[in-house]
Amino acid sequence: MAKCKNCGKEIPNGGVCSCTSANNNKSGSAAAVKESGLKKFFKGDSFIEWLGLIVLIIILVMITIFAIGSPKHGVKKFAKALTKENGAKSYFAMVYPDEFLENIKSKEYIERHPSIKSWDNELSDYKSAKKEEFSSGKLKVEKVEKISRLSTDGVNSASNYFKTKFSVQNYHCTKGYEYKITFDKEGTDTPQVYNVCVVKLKTDGWKIIEMNEERLIDEY
């Protein structure tokens, strides 16, 4: 029989002594192997590959967040809604202030303001209008391009537009741009061009005003 190198106790060949020193040596060996494996990982190509993958994911997430929060994304969302018969919710989410949207969904608000359409009526009228429009051919977005940044007068007019049109006082525009949307329409070779202003409301983010800057300044 073999003897333990730590305490001298006889143990079967190939066995491990139950003494404290032998068990500590066993744990230390396992820890050393684990530490060696970790060092090898952090110093090897695997760590570099994983680090590169993590950095790439972070970059992609940041790009996505930036794209979704950009004015062009808002214009594209608006343009796409115009090509769909059931695009009413996206359309109104882009052209109406959030507070006004909540108001027209309230039965009590509509009862107090009978001249204003309810949410259900807005959805129904939009779908009917699109159905009639698409009877002669559907629309397809061909191009969305920025024309120019709104001037100070344009931004101030945008604020007045929301205050006047929707009877809200706390909607302040901080900046905006004019965009041109080009549509292809089935059954015709002539593209349809639609100029809009996309403005950033301090409380709601990007919203669409369905006119160009010149008209916006003239009317508001």
Large-scale geometry: elongated
Helix and strand composition category: alpha+beta
Beta-strand share of residues: 15-25%
Distance between the termini: 102 Å
Low-confidence stretches: 56-68
Instruction: Kindly report the average pLDDT value.
Output: 81
Tally of helical segments: 9
Overall helicity: 40-55%
Strand order of the largest sheet: 3-4-5-6
Number of strands: 6
What is the total number of structural domains? 2
Largest sheet: 4 strands, antiparallel
Give helix and strand order, one letter per element, not per position: EEHHHHHHHEHEEEH
Folded structure, characterized:
- A 4-stranded antiparallel beta sheet has the order 3-4-5-6, sandwiched between helices.
- It has 9 helices and 6 strands; from the N terminus they run ββαααααααβαβββα.
- The protein is an alpha+beta fold and 220 residues long.
- It has 2 domains: 20-55; 71-219, no CATH class.
Task: Give the structure's gist in a few sentences.
The chain contains nine helices and six strands; from the N terminus they run ββαααααααβαβββα. It is elongated.
Which SSEs are present, and which pair or pack?
Elements lengths: L1 E2 L6 E2 L8 H24 L1 H24 L2 H12 L5 H8 L2 H7 L2 H6 L6 H15 L5 E11 L2 H15 L6 E13 L6 E10 L3 E5 L3 H7 L1
Antiparallel strand pairs: 1-2, 3-4, 4-5, 5-6
Helix pairs in contact: 3-4, 8-9
Annotation keywords:
220 residues; 2 domains; elongated
